[in-house]
Specification:
This protein is of the alpha+beta class. It contains nine helices and 14 strands. Belongs to the aspartyl/asparaginyl beta-hydroxylase family.
């Protein structure tokens, strides 16, 4: 009987210990759920910066600044873990804003395929123009995506579909250029035709007629060029949803020179379709000269130091090209979507009401 009573006492002690352990574990679990719930209900990134504006400067270059909040890109959001990594020691200003924008994107969507973007955001000091002291032939002003194949000029096969589409559309693009361009007196300070913008040059005249300027469609200009707008909407790799995307007619008058400058990023290729190319016109990118040809496209990386000039006579008339920004062929689809989110088009038209290429095209007169 004593032995049985001893066993009962031991069993009761073991049961009490097990109940106490279970209660402790339950309390720990409740505490953990409470902490996780508080973290998830708090704002993910308080004070997250808005998209970027590439503001015009005195010359071909630009500068960046904050703007209105962006809208998320189309597509279904997927949950993913978000490693809150420390900022790079030099992570202030642009680096800091881009870092938090990338984290916000990954929190809403995914970290998958974001390795190069993460690397470029966390360590921009070797690439950006503002923080790169040593002379370099390539210095993007705003963002550098590492590990992209790089060269001043690219072969037409790099974006074969869009290049062939533009070249097939040469006659109608040329006709609409003539419909909106009216030569002004060739004197300094003369006003450009309606819809055109004068750009600063050390000498001569350089005018642009934008259909899309830093990702924002210009409705009035687009309605004046409905066929060109339809061509633009058919391009597969046109950058139409962030501030790195532009499309315009660009005119360089006789005796004009565009100052040497760098573009904002290496994630794009700038495409020039020659419309009117008199003798004595040349484009120099990264120290390599190329000549435009009427009806043919030139693809180049404008994050390289580049310039253009027209040394022809007044009788030769202006040099005219149709310029459009295309994605670099080695920027993956996931990276493009993230870049559209980080560098979303700013301003009052940001969000679901910002006119898209297709929607604006339907409003343009035939």
């Amino acid at each position: 009987m004593l032995r049985a009573g001893g066993r009962d006492a031991v069993d009761e002690e073991c049961q009490s210990s097990a109940v106490g352990t279970a209660l402790c574990l339950a309390l720990l679990f409740v505490w953990y759920c409470y902490r996780v719930g508080r973290e998830q209900s708090a704002p993910a990134l308080p004070g997250r910066p808005g998209p970027f504006v590439l503001l015009p400067a005195d010359g071909p270059q630009g500068r960046q600044g904050p703007a209105a909040p962006p809208c998320p890109p189309n597509g279904s959001a997927t949950a993913s873990s978000l490693p809150m990594l420390p900022l790079h020691p030099g992570g202030r200003g642009l680096n800091h804003r881009l870092y938090h924008s990338l984290q916000d994107y990954a929190k809403r969507y995914t970290w998958s395929g974001m390795g190069r973007l993460h690397k470029g955001v966390r360590d921009p000091a070797r690439h950006l123009l503002s923080v790169r002291p040593a002379p370099s032939i390539q210095k993007p002003e705003v963002f550098f995506l590492p590990d992209l194949p790089t060269a001043p000029f690219f072969p037409r096969d790099a974006q074969k579909h869009d290049v062939e589409l533009l070249e097939r559309s040469f006659p109608l693009l040329l006709a609409e250029f003539h419909s909106v361009y009216r030569p002004a007196p060739p004197r300094p300070g003369s006003s450009p035709p309606p819809g055109w913008k004068a750009n600063g040059t050390p000498q001569g005249q350089w005018w642009t007629f934008y259909l899309v300027n830093q990702g924002t469609p210009l409705a009035l200009n687009a309605r004046r060029c409905p066929r060109t707008w339809r061509v633009l909407a058919q391009l597969r790799t046109f950058i139409g949803n962030n501030v790195f995307g532009n499309a315009c007619f660009s005119v360089l008058g006789p005796g004009s020179t565009v100052s040497e400058h760098y573009g904002p990023t290496n994630v794009r290729l700038r495409c020039h379709l020659g419309l009117k190319v008199p003798p004595g016109c040349e484009l120099v990118v990264g120290g390599e000269p190329q000549c435009w040809s009427e009806g043919s496209c030139l693809l180049f990386d404008d994050s390289f130091l580049h310039t253009a000039f027209h040394e022809g006579s007044a009788e030769d008339g202006p040099r005219a090209v149709f310029m459009v920004d295309l994605w670099h062929p080695n920027v993956a689809a996931a990276e493009r979507q993230a870049l559209d989110y980080i560098f979303t088009t700013p301003g009052p038209l940001t969000g679901p009401f910002r006119p898209s290429l297709t929607r604006l095209r339907t409003r343009a007169p035939v």
